[in-house]
Here is the input.
Amino acid sequence: MKQALVCGAGGFIASHMVKRLKQEGFWVRGVDLKYPEFSETPADDFVIGDLRDQSLCREIVDRKYDEVYQFAADMGGAGYIFTGEHDADVMSNSATINLNMVEACRKRNVKRVFYSSSACMYPAYNQEDPNNPNCAESSAYPAAPDSEYGWEKLFSERLYLAYHRNYKMESRVGRFHNIFGPEGTWTGGKEKAPAAMCRKVAQAKDGDTIQIWGDGKQTRSFLIVDECIEGVLRLTRSDKTGPYNIGSEEMVSINQLVEMVMEIAGKKIHVEHIPGPTGVRGRNSDNTLIAKELGWAPSQSLRQGLETTYAWVEEQVRKGQK
Ligand code: NAD
Ligand code: GDD
Here is the structure.
């Protein structure tokens, strides 16, 4: 039986990964500070612990896993990473986790290690035009991420790639572009735009006004979590190291995103634009390289992903109102 370790398994993407690996027949160990909030984990073993603790990392990497997925990070949406208030924690917590984990994996000579980087590592100067951002993998340097979160991601992807070069570790690096879907953070300050828009629309009545940050003309692309998992597995099990973008190329403005959510909800709601943390002006995944080298491209539209996500967020809102 193949064995996998999933770090951050109490969180959004990693909890979906645990489910997928169990469906594939793996023995799975999850580790996180917390259990998943929205459904029970099917992991064979779930360790509650802090990956900033080097000895814990050594304890959980107690065997030559077939696959290790490193998703644990101190992260959140624009309201968390662009305010500047959490910069020291974000950099220190995530870098410590990555330093500990990569070394623990080297010691046990694990077969494959996937590291989840982010589109936030791309230079801000290529993301100023909302209609024409450049996020090709080759555009990463000269480096100029617009957040400390992005700088830590850039450092850590280089760390995993250095272990590949110097220790022959089979590292794999994916750069995620705004992943969303059911069981993602939807409230509390760390939620990203798709979940935030679904929540605001679900809580509103016809004729109400909801607030969104900025003029709404900033652009992004959003990838549904199932497609992300598929891309991660395709990359991890390939003979390529990366980094590769794992995202959608269906770029929309935040105003268009809200419109789509309102259509799905069947509600007519006014939008008020207010100042807030907005991040880069435009961002879109460029899937040219991953399509060419791994034959991967997402298949679902944003609308399809938002339909399932809206239904799930609406249910959470309803439960909360009881
Ligand atoms: P998430 O916050 O839901 O999951 C991260 C998990 O890591 C959380 O459950 C958290 O408790 C855990 N964690 C944090 N510090 C820990 C510690 N010290 N010890 C043990 N566990 C710890 O985030 P997610 O959306 O599932 O993201 C997963 C990964 O993908 C992260 O590395 C994130 O930076 C990256 N990423 C996500 C997106 C996205 O849009 N969701 C985009 C780019 C990159
Ligand atoms: N979260 C949120 N909540 N964003 C809003 C809101 C709101 O109520 N209103 C407008 N926005 C705008 C933000 O200002 C930003 O311009 C845009 O929607 C997208 O915000 P997020 O989805 O929160 O984050 P992001 O795309 O800027 O960055 C995210 O994606 C990266 C990868 O592409 C973050 O989740 C990063 O952690 C991630 O690495």
